[in-house]
């Protein structure tokens, strides 16, 4: 845990940029420690921990990518935001592979920087609270009354579970080509998906929740319109459970129309060789997608093992792309790379018509976001 809940380490070898960034974040309520190089930053990290780290990439001596690699060898939780004025596809891939939380392109607007750091700190706090909760449960268990109340609330949430569907549209076809299944619950204390999933993990009832979600999704699958796909989020360890996807499972009868969307790819790195599992899933008819191209904590070896048919372009690259030529160059390069690899790309997080138009001009076809409608309880072609 950082010794201040909003302590941020800023790393840049340009004194003027370092000072300006420090002043901006200090005025926004963060406690800031500046570091003039990657080497200095590592020494400071030995003395204290931080809620977030903001680093330039192009520095003399240790680069921001070298710093990120070194940090990730020691710590998987602390969000690292990288900033560059000379973006390239390889730099973006390396940042993704080593787990950059965000990859910002200069010039960074003050509002964008403050929002990125604020979100990074919140995620850091969430990771810390999860660790503390699991440690508390492992050492002492929950107090009996609290655990009983939480279990009762979770059981009610399971009983009031609902699935909503968010459309994925093709601009070329002018219709939805698929829908992402998202979990909701009418239980007031656990209506937010993160709260529901976190509580399931805390109570040791994650398997129960997963099976309930899959059963609910399967009950809707017969209503899926012809030639549409159904995207189902899958936590990597669940790939090992044959009963969730194999013959006789609720999803198996619809496998040829289901895309298993792999979340939290970082954990795949710890699962060893899953090539045979992926092969068996494809033999059953499933397709695979990964959902964090452009960010995340996952290494590229998971791409090699999964060989996904579909990838999702992270919303951090989509946000504001209509006014950011550098983002446009990076996204255009990613689209071309994925086309060479025979992978379809879904750009997610689209909220403005101008973002849609910019992506289409770059060659994007498959899009997802609130611009095309909110998640709904039925399969509906949205207005495009």
Question: How would you sum up this structure in a few lines?
Answer:
This protein has 384 residues and is α/β, with parallel strands linked by helices.
What CATH calls the topology of the largest domain is TIM Barrel
Tell me the domain tally.
2
CATH architecture of the largest domain: Alpha-Beta Barrel
Kindly, what is the distance between the CA atoms of the first and last residues, rounded to a whole number of angstroms? Answer: 46 Å
- Strand order, largest beta sheet: 6-7-8-9-10-11-12-13
User: How many β-strand runs?
Assistant: 13
Tell me the CATH superfamily of the largest domain: EAL domain
Helical content, roughly?
A: 40-55%
Structural class: alpha/beta
Q: Give the overall shape, derived from the CA principal axes.
A: globular
What fraction of the residues are assigned to beta strands by DSSP? 15-25%
Run of helices and strands: EHEHEHEHEHHEEHHEHEHEHEHHEHE
Q: Please give the radius of gyration in angstroms.
A: 22 Å
Poorly predicted regions are 135-142
In CATH, what is the class of the largest domain? Alpha Beta
3D structure, described in words:
The chain is α/β, with parallel strands linked by helices. It folds into two domains: 7-128, Response regulator (Rossmann fold, 3-Layer(aba) Sandwich), CATH 3.40.50; 142-372, Alpha-Beta Barrel (TIM Barrel). Helices cover 43% and strands 20% of the residues. It is built from 14 helices and 13 strands. It has helices at residues 15-27, 38-47, 64-74, 89-97, 110-140, 144-159, 193-203, 206-220, 242-245, 275-284, 301-306, 315-318, 325-340, 353-362, and strands spanning 7-11, 31-35, 52-56, 80-84, 102-105, 161-170, 175-185, 229-234, 258-262, 287-293, 310-313, 344-348, 366-368. Strands 6-7-8-9-10-11-12-13 form an eight-stranded mixed beta barrel. A five-stranded parallel beta sheet has the order 2-1-3-4-5, with helices on both faces. α6 (144-159) crosses α7 (193-203) and α7 packs across α8. The protein starts with 6 loop residues before the first strand and ends in a 16-residue tail after the last strand.
């Amino acid at each position: 845990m950082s010794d201040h809940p909003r302590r941020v380490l800023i790393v840049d070898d340009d004194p003027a940029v370092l000072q300006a960034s420090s002043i901006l974040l200090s005025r926004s309520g963060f406690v800031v420690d500046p570091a003039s190089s990657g080497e200095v930053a590592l020494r400071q990290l030995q003395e204290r921990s931080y809620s977030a780290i903001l680093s330039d990439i192009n520095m003399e001596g240790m680069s921001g990518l070298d710093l990120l690699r070194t940090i990730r060898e020691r710590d998987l939780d602390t969000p690292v935001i990288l900033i560059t004025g000379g973006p390239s596809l390889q730099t973006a891939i390396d940042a993704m592979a080593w787990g950059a939380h965000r990859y910002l392109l200069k010039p960074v607007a003050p509002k964008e920087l403050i929002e990125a750091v604020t979100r990074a700190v919140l995620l850091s706090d969430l990771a810390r609270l999860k660790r503390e909760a699991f440690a508390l449960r492992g050492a002492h268990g929950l107090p009996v009354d609290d655990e009983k109340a939480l279990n009762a609330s979770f059981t009610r949430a399971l009983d009031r579970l609902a699935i909503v569907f968010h459309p994925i549209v093709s601009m070329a076809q002018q219709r939805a080509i698929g829908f992402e299944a998202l979990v909701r619950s009418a239980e007031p204390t656990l209506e937010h998906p993160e709260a529901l999933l976190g509580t399931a993990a805390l109570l040791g009832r994650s398997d129960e929740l997963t099976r309930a979600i899959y059963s609910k999704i399967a009950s809707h699958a017969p209503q899926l319109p012809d030639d549409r796909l159904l995207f189902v989020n899958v936590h990597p360890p669940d790939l090992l459970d044959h009963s969730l996807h194999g013959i006789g499972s609720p999803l198996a009868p619809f496998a040829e129309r289901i895309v298993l969307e792999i979340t939290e790819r970082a954990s795949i790195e710890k699962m060893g060789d899953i090539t045979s599992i992926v092969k068996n899933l494809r033999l059953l008819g499933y397709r695979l997608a990964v959902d964090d191209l452009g960010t995340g904590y996952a290494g590229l070896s998971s791409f090699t093992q999964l060989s996904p048919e579909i990838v999702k372009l992270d919303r951090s690259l989509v946000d504001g792309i209509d006014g950011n030529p550098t983002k446009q160059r990076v996204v255009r390069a990613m689209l071309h790379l994925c086309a060479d690899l025979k992978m379809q790309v879904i750009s997610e997080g689209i909220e403005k018509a101008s973002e849609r138009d910019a992506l289409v001009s770059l060659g994007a076809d498959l899009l997802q976001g609130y611009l095309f409608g909110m998640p709904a309880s039925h399969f509906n072609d949205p207005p495009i």
